[in-house]
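pls ignore typos typing on phone
fe (ii) ion + seq
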Amino acid sequence: MAHSRTHNGQGGSSILGSSVKGLLITAGVAAIANLGRKMAVQAPTAMAHDWCEGLIKEHKATLAVIDKLEQLSPEQTDRRAMLLMNLTHMIAKHAMQEENVIYPVLRRGENGQVADALNSDHGEVKAMLYELGHMEKGDAAFGETLGRLRTALDDHMRQEENELFPALRARLSDEENKKLSREMNMAGLMLA
Ligand SMILES: [Fe+2]
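k done
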């Protein structure tokens, strides 16, 4: 047996080599497929060609998913769970873009307290999503929490869209706004 192992050492490593190569090729194909998927997810935001417009588009898409969730009956538990998963992913990606890129730039203009408040809003939203994820999807509490989530998001988005984001965009040069859009889309791709 020992002899046969030694004898087959070369062949063994060649088999190992080909399976490693196969794995690498599979990983490469998967990475390319995943990048394609990520770019497709990020495309609607990136195609807005402006960070502020891109984020507003995402706000609208997020509220549209909540609308769909609110239209479901308590008996449609699987559909509720699926849409909640979509919503949680959309909001995580959106929050990544705002928390990692937009709010830090907002903070530069002595808007520290405003940035803190926005981050705190996101904390509350994430907590509500966590609670929804851990609830029985047919419970009355699900609808109630979803309603609170919608109200919180509405207030938060209105402040960003009507006041804070346009003011930030106006404060920055065209070049700075372009750079911010690029950075925001890169942050989005990480979670897309
Ligand atoms: Fe936002």
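The chain has a mean pLDDT of 90. The pocket of fe (ii) ion is lined by residues 55, 59, 94, 98, 157, 160 (CB under 6 Å). more later
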